[in-house]
Amino acid sequence: MKKTLMVAALTGVFATAAHAQSSVTLYGLIDAGVTYANNSGGHSLWKASSGTVNGSRWGLRGSEDLGGGLKAIFTLESGFNIMNGAAGQSSRMFGRQAFVGLASNQFGAVTLGRQYDSVVDYLAPLSNTGTQYGGTIAAHPYDNDNLNNSIRFNNTIKYSSVNYAGFKFGGTYSFSNSTEFANNRAYSFGASYNWGGLNVAAGYLQLNNDVNNLQQAATNSGAQTGEYTFAAGRQRTFGGGVNYTFGPATAGFVYTQTQLGNAVGISATQSGHNGGIGFGADSARFQNFEGNVRYALTPALSLAGAYTYTRASFGGGVNPNYNTVALQSDYALSKRTDVYLQGDWQHVSDTSTGVGAYLNGLGSASTRQDQIAVTVGMRHRF
């Protein structure tokens, strides 16, 4: 049960900000576990892990009723590593989300700040990596479509519609905050429709960058700073998906494609390879085909799984294909606490190109075509 803190309970830096709010909610999630990997940089690995499925975070969410169906809203959310206490997202204080805006019961919400793109908002919940049933380590190779939120966007204005009989839509624009208006900007749009057990969604995301001047410091101006998946002048990501729930089971399919122009390579952080992975041409492409399923055996025990086939083109004759499988068993000890066992496996078609298998978040890629990881963990929500 989330704890609602009234004005008198807030202290320090938040006391003044919260004074005018109707309510402020403190919330969070802690994901901790132990992971075994068969090959991480050529060696087996045992590690105490944070956020293997869902990134550990805490946040403040507030609203003020302005009357007439209008309210002011804000969210400040910080990611962290539970094992060492370090801040995530390039050591930002509120690296996951930080925004303020107005929400109307009739017209939707407009918010400004550091926010998620529309592919994450609408399409990711239909995928395995975008949910609690697969999460971080189950991302498509290198999180090439950003369904796992590897990149969040600064300087963003977002519109989110209300629910029109199951139909929702929205879009974002992220400013460069420089005189080079079109450099280091991003924009996205997406929509979803829910009817009974059927849920369909689609989204589009585009990033523009000066590939020779990527902004590595979190404090630099630009839509994308601090974290990078691709060194590329232009990234276009789009896709669609469908889920259908029947009784205790949900089955789904998600397709995404990422096209890169003026492309140099994949960052070392996202690829698990020292020095990153270079492309053999100025264009590259990823296509992901994911099938997923989950089943509630009992109200407390659930099983979930997903298979993703990824077809990639790095240029220069390097065209690796990836097969990725994620399996999870989860048991709820209460409404807020659960324990899980998750196994993940990836096979890449050919390591002669220097590209080894890599499961998201393990730290180092495999020196072979396969990488396997098994995690035993627990999550607590507050």
TrEMBL record:
InterPro entries per record: Gram-neg_bact_OMP, Gram_neg_porin_domain, Porin_dom_sf, Porin_Gram-ve, Porin_Neis
Name of protein: GBP family porin
Broad class of where this protein is predominantly found: membrane
SUPFAM superfamilies listed in its UniProt record: Porins
Subcellular location as annotated: Cell outer membrane
Binding partners and assembly: Homotrimer.
Keywords for the protein's UniProt record, in alphabetical order: Cell outer membrane, Ion transport, Membrane, Porin, Signal, Transmembrane, Transmembrane beta strand, Transport
Gene Ontology biological process terms from the UniProt entry: monoatomic ion transmembrane transport
UniProt cross-references to Pfam families, sorted A to Z: Porin_4 (PF13609)
Membrane topology, as annotated: Multi-pass membrane protein
GO molecular-function terms, A-Z: porin activity
Species of origin: Paraburkholderia tropica
Organism taxonomic ancestry: Bacteria, Pseudomonadati, Pseudomonadota, Betaproteobacteria, Burkholderiales
Signal peptide: 1-20
GO cellular component labels: cell outer membrane; pore complex
Domain spans labelled Porin: 8-349
